TrEMBL record:
It comes from the Bacteria. Keywords: ATP-binding, Nucleotide-binding. One of its GO terms (molecular function) is DNA binding. Pfam families: AAA_16, GerE. InterPro entries: AAA_16, P-loop_NTPase, Sig_transdc_resp-reg_C-effctor, TPR-like_helical_dom_sf, Tscrpt_reg_LuxR_C, WH-like_DNA-bd_sf. Residues 802-864 form the HTH luxR-type domain. GO terms for biological process: regulation of DNA-templated transcription. One of its GO terms (cellular component) is cytoplasm. This is HTH luxR-type domain-containing protein.
Length: 868
């Protein structure tokens, strides 16, 4: 059974169940029943499974759950019982009138459990009737019966282990929602049920979940409900703020409330964000409006005051709309685009209906803020509201279509025909046609049609110039420069210069401005420090403005530069932050996965890099984004090379290079895949194919002056000559690679060149020269924060037993294993699943060329002739 993101928890639950009795607890929809089913499906066959799933109304019926569990069993199985016990059991199961003798009933159930050895499963254990609970508490322990329970909270009668089911991680929630649709991940709180329901409802809270929240609220006292309402309406609720807002007894009212958690510092957090979002929808509207009115009178912040005032009134009101627009502008200046989008949307709702164009303009402005804040579902909803409104001019309809295109980003599959529709609707109006052509070109490039993209970008430049739309003209020129560079067209720098002459100052440091294009061209031309400076400025500016989509869009490019500069630690930290942000937003995951995989491939764990790259490639392929499919395939190949497994690298690298060539990329520096493919091919003996890859890439790299790519190709050529037993030419190529990478300030590529050169010298029996080169390689890798690569140099130096360059969790697992720990013991000590341990051991055995634990211990301890 596929339980997304639950591998570790499932291993813990299985271990607890194997010990005897385990109760899972957590809120509705958290996945307790799914875990129970998975454990049962994976358990060895034994006695019968007795299962009951009571509802709340069953709580008051004595012995109902016991009858659920035993009635069918006793029909099929005969258990000899003394007459008093048989009589008590018949009375409990309502086969005979009267109440059962309590002691005789307990003894009867104990005898049945001992005879049959069942597995007892109780869902909704909080609603087990008291009479059944007393019997089960007595019999389960004494009979040593295996049992699984699920409840919203721990129950007093349970005798056995208790495990809380935590929320899904953000990553797992995002992946789950991607299977069903897309919505704000933050709203789900990691609850699988909420995630699936919300994804399927396009972000609106569906009636089923409103019913769940309504039921949870109904169980709370009236005063507690009132305090919860205030808590969900204010930003960053806390006990002190709630008291200020008129809830004087907030601490007492929330102390035992299961819907919130009160922190030691007085902060109040809803256990499920969806509950906070749904409370205003569940409670009576007049009660919600009254609460907003009170809060508006208490709010010192004009932005918050305007928000509460808007929710306190009904219908259309232009003065309120104007106040909201002022508040939105203030939020925008603060860099809180999320708030600006919400306030702008409210302003549009309060705009009188006789001004449809004015309401549409306000929605489109709010949609732009929502896009910047990463609220793509909100932007989509605002744009769709414009398209549904009667009386909206064509200009605004086309702009709404363009918002819909921007909201799906690089996901060409999701965009469908929207880009073409916008372009068709814009025909004849240069002011509309220019931005539509620009977006059509971007989607063409993402889909691999670089030449078509370049034509549309050139058209967009001319149209924007006609319409005096400088912003679109600059965006189109910058993208055209990048397209020309990818095609190997030397005029790219001239095109960028044209954009620099006209760019507005505010646009220099945006993702579609001149600094971004310059950073990319600098990277490919090996001007790493300049590229780093540009990207740092871009990231700082995006962070200050709160434009989260730009932060993701720039971080992956910065990681490429930082890795090239040997700053693996910085790359890893920023990659982790970027991936978390992308998962929170449910947006640009292919980009974020690539950045994280690249950083892990050099500076972290190759197994993690492989998993991230595979995830990124799958997402890019689903989106129709060929550019990031190539990048993630390259990262997957790098992960395999880092792990010392060139056989696994060949497949993804070969596919990446084929895609690159099919798309018409003429500049080998854009993806830099071909030197790595050549190296992998050489390692597996595909020398003729490797020679073709090197020769084809070298011609383009030399023509375009890509010194870094030429140096990497020299390294591959040196390894090829070495395999062809031409050591003199190999030495010449490897020496050229080392000197070029040293001169260009590319430490990781320098380290790889030194490593290859050291191997070449060793094969020529030049031990002293080989050792010096390998020591330099280890030092370079260590200083760059690339421990796995430094470990490979250490192995060749003999400082570590050959083949033992393990890192990360593999090294920890290996250490535990050779100390005698079993797989379950290793899993328990390292807080990972047994399945994870088994998979890691398989990789370790393959990597070290051993077949069992004895050989592994011998290899790690440096023994030369381990026993088989």
């Amino acid at each position: 059974m596929d339980l997304l993101g639950r591998d570790e928890l499932l291993a813990t639950v299985r271990a607890g169940f194997a010990r005897g009795r385990l109760l899972l607890h957590g809120p509705v929809g958290i996945g307790k029943t799914a875990l129970v089913d998975a454990v049962l499906a994976g358990s060895p066959a034994g006695g019968p499974v007795l299962r009951s799933s009571p509802v709340e109304a069953d709580r008051g019926i004595p012995h109902l759950v016991l009858a659920d569990l035993l009635a069918d069993l006793l029909t099929d199985v005969r258990v000899d019982l003394p007459e008093p016990q048989r009589d008590a059991l018949d009375r409990a199961l309502r086969r005979r009138a009267g109440e059962p003798d309590p002691l005789a009933l307990r003894q009867a159930v104990l005898a049945v459990f001992r005879e049959v050895d069942p597995v007892v499963v109780v869902d909704n254990a909080q609603w087990v009737d008291d009479a059944t609970a007393d019997v089960l508490a007595f019999a389960l322990v004494r009979a040593r019966t295996r049992a699984l329970g699920a409840a919203r909270e721990p129950v007093a009668w349970w005798r056995g282990d208790v495990v809380e089911v935590p929320p899904l991680t953000v990553a797992a929630t995002a992946e789950l929602m991607a299977r069903h649709g897309r919505v704000d991940v933050r709203l789900t709180g990691g609850n699988p049920l909420y995630a699936v329901e919300l994804a399927g409802s396009a972000g609106a809270v569906p009636a089923r979940l409103l019913g769940v929240v309504g039921h949870l609220l109904a169980a709370q006292p009236a005063d507690t409900r009132a305090t919860l309402l205030v808590a969900c309406l204010v930003d960053r609720p806390g006990l002190r703020l709630l008291v200020h807002c008129g809830r004087a007894r907030a601490a007492a009212e929330l102390r035992d409330c299961p819907l919130v958690r009160v922190d030691p510092d007085g902060g109040v957090r809803f256990r499920q964000p969806l509950v906070a979002a749904a409370i205003p929808l569940v409670l009576p509207p007049e009660e919600v409006r009254a609460a907003h009115a009170r809060l508006a009178g208490l709010a010192a912040d004009p932005v918050q005051r305007a928000r509460h005032l808007a929710h306190a009134v009904t219908g259309f009101d232009e003065p309120t709309a104007v106040a909201l627009l002022r508040a939105a502008a203030a939020a925008r200046r603060r860099g809180t685009l999320d708030q600006a989008a919400e306030l702008g949307g409210l302003a549009a709702e309060r705009t009188p209906p006789h001004s449809p164009a004015r309401a549409a303009a306000r929605r489109l402005r709010a949609a732009g803020d929502a896009l910047g804040a990463g609220r793509h579902e909100l932007a989509t909803a605002l744009a769709q509201a414009v398209l549904r409104s009667p009386g909206v001019p064509r200009t605004q309809r086309v702009r709404a279509q363009l918002v819909l295109v921007d909201a799906v980003g690089y996901a060409r599959t999701a965009a469908g025909g929207m880009v073409g529709e916008a372009l068709t609707g814009a025909k004849g109006d240069a002011a509309l046609e220019a931005p539509a052509e620009y977006r059509f070109a971007v989607h063409s490039a993402v889909g691999g049609d670089l030449r078509g993209a370049a034509r549309h970008l050139a058209d967009a430049v001319l149209l924007a110039r006609t319409a005096k739309d400088v912003r679109t003209e600059v965006r189109s020129l910058c993208s055209l420069a990048l397209c020309q560079m990818a095609l190997g067209d030397a005029t790219a720098a001239g095109t960028l210069d044209l954009a620099r002459r006209i760019v507005p100052e505010a646009m220099v440091v945006t993702h579609d401005g001149t600094l971004w294009a310059a950073a990319r061209l600098d990277l490919f031309a090996d001007r790493l420090q300049a590229a780093s400076d540009h990207l740092t400025a871009l990231l700082d500016h995006a962070g200050e403005r709160g434009v989260l989509a730009e932060v993701i869009g720039m971080t992956w490019a910065a990681i490429e530069v930082w890795v090239a500069m040997g700053r693996c630690g910085s790359a890893l930290r920023r990659a982790t932050e970027c991936l978390r942000l992308a998962e929170d937003m449910g947006y640009d995951l292919a980009l974020a996965c690539y950045g994280a995989a690249l950083a892990e491939a050099y500076g972290g764990d190759p197994a993690v890099a492989d998993a991230l790259a595979r995830r990124g490639a799958a997402r890019a392929e689903a989106d129709g984004d060929l550019s990031f499919l190539v990048r993630n395939l390259h990262a997957q190949g790098l992960a395999a090379l880092s792990a010392g497994n060139p056989e696994a690298a060949v497949g993804p690298l070969r596919r990446a290079v084929k895609l690159e060539l099919d798309m018409g990329f003429g500049d080998p520096a854009v993806f830099a895949t071909r030197p790595d493919l050549a190296e992998a091919l050489i390692s597996v003996g595909r020398l003729e194919e490797a020679a073709g890859v090197v020769g084809c890439a070298r011609a383009a790299a030399v023509r375009l002056g890509r010194r870094g790519v030429v140096a990497s190709l020299d390294r591959a050529d040196g390894l090829l000559r070495l395999a062809l037993k031409d050591p003199v030419t190999a030495e010449r190529s490897l020496s050229a690679a080392v000197e070029a990478h040293r001169d260009l300030g590319q430490p990781l590529q320098l380290g790889r060149g030194l490593l290859a050169f050291g191997i070449a010298e060793r094969r020529r029996r030049r031990r002293g020269a080989s050792r010096r080169l390998l020591e330099q390689a280890r030092e370079v890798f260590t200083e760059s924060g690339a421990p796995r690569w430094a470990g490979r140099a250490a192995v060749l130096l003999g400082d570590t037993p050959e083949g033992t360059a393990l890192a990360g969790f593999e090294a920890r697992i290996a250490r535990q294993v050779i100390e005698g720990a079993s797989n379950p013991e290793v899993a328990g000590r390292l807080n990972i699943s047994v399945k994870t341990v088994e998979g890691a051991l398989t990789r370790i055995y393959r990597k070290l060329d051993v077949r069992n634990r004895t050989q592994l211990a011998a290899r790690l301890r440096g023994e030369r002739n381990p026993q088989i």
